[in-house]
């Protein structure tokens, strides 16, 4: 499989099949920029996307039926966010989205097999990185912001369910509403990263203060100090062995004052999971799962937190992604790194079987 070839492919923004996914990786204003640079851009109709079909049509995008990407030419670049539908079983396109398939997550091997069978390729957004390894487009800040906000609202008994997408202005009003009602002790792990900064900002809006831990503190983990907080917000995405922050034993044998864990990372099923205390994500309908009744301990583990602030998070993500899309097909190193990450994942899984489209 060659590196990304010099071309300006047709870009196809697909509809998200998950009903709670309201974000867009490319917003209408940035779609206009691509069109002005000579891109042919199709957008699938979507009833839940925060930007309407008319918003995209107004800037020059063609509108196509949901799911019609399967019938487009093989050299079309298909852009999305979350999981693909189960059909077709063989994937012949290059797909740009968060595949969650490189760390032995559930279903990862089968997804890679589908790409190999069809001759396509996964250009995973998590691996679109700069030379220093930093991700070039990420929802991390807003994931941290929403995760911390939900935990604080839960701790104050003010979390209204089911959750619905809204605006930062409305969420901030809820956070300010609990500022005088509770003064929880909050710990944010991963405080120096994007997600950690978002979490710290949400804590400040709520009128609370937070302790921030990062690599230095987790390298010599003081679990007693960790458990001496009411709220734990985890924003660490581990790429290697890590000592769990909270274990099942700590859940079963209460110690400290911890009452709610917001697992922003939500890395369930990965081999390096810092919070192996729950086995399935929570949902918008039931955002918090009670792990223990006496004393109470709940976990919030929603795997698309930024979708609860879809306009703000989409606009920020699209602003980061658009320059990278404009560089697609120009020999840009980030896309070739993306492609290499896919090759390496297939090789590790022992399923490389052909030469997918590049």
Report on this structure.
With 358 residues, the chain is of the alpha/beta class. Strands 3-2-1-4-5-6 form a 6-stranded parallel beta sheet, with helices on both faces. Strands 8-7-9-10-12-11 form a 6-stranded mixed beta sheet. The protein has helices spanning 28-36, 53-57, 108-118, 140-155, 168-177, 194-205, 215-219, 223-227, 248-252, 310-326, 333-349; strands at residues 11-13, 41-44, 62-64, 77-79, 94-97, 121-124, 186-189, 210-213, 231-234, 260-263, 288-293, 296-300. Helix 1 packs parallel to helix 10 (310-326). Helix content is 31%, strand content 13%. The model is unreliable at 353-358 (pLDDT under 50). It is built from 11 helices and 12 strands. Helix 6 (194-205) links the parallel strand 7 and strand 8.
């Amino acid at each position: 499989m060659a590196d990304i070839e010099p071309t300006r492919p047709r870009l196809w923004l697909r509809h998200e099949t998950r009903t709670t996914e309201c974000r867009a990786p490319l917003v209408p204003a940035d779609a206009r920029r691509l069109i002005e640079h000579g891109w042919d851009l199709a957008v699938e109709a979507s009833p839940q996307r925060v930007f309407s079909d008319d918003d995209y049509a107004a800037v020059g995008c063609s509108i196509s039926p949901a799911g019609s990407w399967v019938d487009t030419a093989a050299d079309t670049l298909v852009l999305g966010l979350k999981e693909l539908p189960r059909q077709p079983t063989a994937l012949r396109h290059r797909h740009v989205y968060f595949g969650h398939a490189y760390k032995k997550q559930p279903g990862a091997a089968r997804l890679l097999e589908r790409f190999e069978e069809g001759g396509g390729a996964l250009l995973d957004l998590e691996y679109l990185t700069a030379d220093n390894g930093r991700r070039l487009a990420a929802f991390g800040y807003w994931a941290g912001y929403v995760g911390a906000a939900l935990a604080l609202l839960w701790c104050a008994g003010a979390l209204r369910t089911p959750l619905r997408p809204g605006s930062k202005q409305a969420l901030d009003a809820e956070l300010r509403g609990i500022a005088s009602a509770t003064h929880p002790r909050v710990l944010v792990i991963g405080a120096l990263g994007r997600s950690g900064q978002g979490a710290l900002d949400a804590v400040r809006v709520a009128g609370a203060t937070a302790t921030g831990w990062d690599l230095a503190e987790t390298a010599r983990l003081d679990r007693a100090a960790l458990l001496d907080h009411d709220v734990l917000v985890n924003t660490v995405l581990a790429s290697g062995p890590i000592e769990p922050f909270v274990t099942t034993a700590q859940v079963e044998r209460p110690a400290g004052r911890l009452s709610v864990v917001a697992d922003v990372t939500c890395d369930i099923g990965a081999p390096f999971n810092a919070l192996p205390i729950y086995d399935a994500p929570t949902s918008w309908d039931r955002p918090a799962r009670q792990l223990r009744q006496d004393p109470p301990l709940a976990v919030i583990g929603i795997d698309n937190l930024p979708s609860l602030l879809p306009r703000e998070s989409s606009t920020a993500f699209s602003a980061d992604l658009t320059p990278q899309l404009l560089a697609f097909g120009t020999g840009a190193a980030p896309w070739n790194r993306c492609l290499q990450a896919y090759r390496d994942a297939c090789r590790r899984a022992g399923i490389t079987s052909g030469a997918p489209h590049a």
